[in-house]
Amino acid sequence: MAIHRSDSPWAIPVAQVGSRAGQTKSVDMVMPAPSGIGDEYFGIPEGSDVRVEGRIESLADGLLLTATATAGLVGECSRCLKSLDQDWLVQFSAYFPYDMPESTPDFDGDEDIDAGEDEGEDTYPLFENATIMDLESTLRDFFVGSLPSQPLCKPDCLGLCPECGADLNADPQHHHDTYDARWSQLGDLKRRLEQLQDGDDGTSDESGDGTDDDNDAGTNAGTDANGHPAS
Ligand SMILES: [Zn+2]
Ligand SMILES: [Zn+2]
């Protein structure tokens, strides 16, 4: 069963531009995002709109696509956990040689043509007698390669306070006196240890306070319940 690449939503007809070297064709298309760009937590959702703007140049032995692809990036900021809803843009060049077998994975081609790697281009096959350029794997490769390992809502996101979780973007002056807090906690610990060592003194102080409170409460309750003093 032959796959009709011309039916692919990523297909660009290139028969005309490829008919003679030196021609160009401008590209401005909206395509669905291919699968596999990021994951369910962060990436470009499959099927969402990708705008591809650029141009195709026909060279002696293939077609060169130079383009900018823009898509909606979805996920969470890795610092402040805010939902990301931003355009993600990737600029790329891809080369489509006329004589590249359709079944050859592009990484084999890269290994064979080391010199070509200097230009930073990736190589993809054309389809249907070099009349169809299909951008599915091209878009996937370049978007996957461009996704940040740590997505940010903005480049200078201040993130969350590690002490209390406050959003530091909303309050850049926010801070805690970290050293004071730690020393005072140590101070509390020291006092408790001293109380434990003293033993009876510390325990009797605490139970004494408790007893006083209980007595007060009991007296008040008794008075209120009776309305008047019983005796
Ligand atoms: Zn953020
Ligand atoms: Zn804080």
Tell me roughly what share of residues is in helical segments: 25-40%
Helix/strand order, N-terminal first = EEEEEHEEHHH
In this entry the ligands are: zinc ion
Number of strands: 7
Uncertain residue ranges: 106-120, 202-227
Can you give the mean pLDDT?
80
- Based on CA inertia axes, which overall geometry fits? rod-shaped
Secondary structure layout:
Blueprint lengths: L10 E3 L10 E9 L16 E10 L3 E15 L6 E15 L8 H7 L9 E2 L8 E3 L1 H11 L31 H21 L1 H27 L5
Parallel strand pairs: 5-6
Antiparallel strand pairs: 1-7, 2-3, 3-4, 4-5
Q: What do these coordinates show?
A:
With 231 residues, the chain is α+β, with helices and mostly antiparallel strands. The protein folds into 2 domains: 5-146, no CATH class; 178-226. The chain contains 4 helices and 7 strands, in the order βββββαββααα. The protein has helices at residues 106-112, 136-146, 178-198, 200-226, and strands at 11-13, 24-32, 49-58, 62-76, 83-97, 122-123, 132-134. The strands form 2 sheets. Strands 2-3-4-5-6 form a 5-stranded mixed sheet, with helices on one face. It has a two-stranded antiparallel ribbon with strand order 1-7. The relative contact order is 0.13. Residues 106-120 and 202-227 have low confidence and may be disordered. It binds zinc ion (2 copies). Residues 77, 79-80, 82, 152-153, 157 line the site of one zinc ion.
Please supply descriptive tags for the structure shown above.
7 strands; two-stranded antiparallel sheet; alpha+beta; binds zinc ion; 231 residues; 25% strand; 2 domains; five-stranded mixed beta sheet; rod-shaped
